[in-house]
Write a structure and sequence with these properties.
Oligomer: single chain
Structural class: alpha/beta
Radius of gyration: 15 Å
Number of helices: 5
Shape: globular
Strand content: 5-15%
CATH class: Alpha Beta
CATH architecture: 3-Layer(aba) Sandwich
Number of strands: 4
Largest sheet: 4 strands, mixed
Number of domains: 1
Length: 105
């Protein structure tokens, strides 16, 4: 399973040929987006209320991608992961690891 972040969605919407080529090797049920990345996309769109064409293109892309919830299990993993990293003196920005560019699980 590949979890796409906002950068990958943006590349799809922009029709980046490298990203499109890589995604064409996957089935639709092999890719998804986290609910946090999904929310960030709509936050970005809300900041551009006149970008109707962009919104339409984004919605067309998102219609084909499953949205994965950010639930208890994921929150627990994130909490432990962030605490472990901070113990190593690598201070993180608040949401750095919630939607990485692409994960394989």
């Amino acid at each position: 399973m590949y979890i796409l972040d906002t950068n990958v969605i943006s590349a799809i919407v922009s029709r980046n040929p490298n990203v499109i080529k890589n995604l064409q090797t996957l089935e639709n049920d092999e890719i998804c987006i986290s609910s946090i990345a999904y929310a960030e996309i709509f936050y970005g769109l809300a900041k551009k209320p006149n970008a109707t064409r962009l919104k339409q293109n984004v919605l067309e892309v998102l219609a084909r991608i499953q949205v994965m919830p950010f639930a208890e299990k994921e929150a627990q993993f994130y909490g432990q992961f962030r605490a472990d990293i901070e113990k190593q003196a690598k201070i993180l920005q608040k949401w750095t690891y919630l939607s990485p560019p692409m994960l394989i699980i």
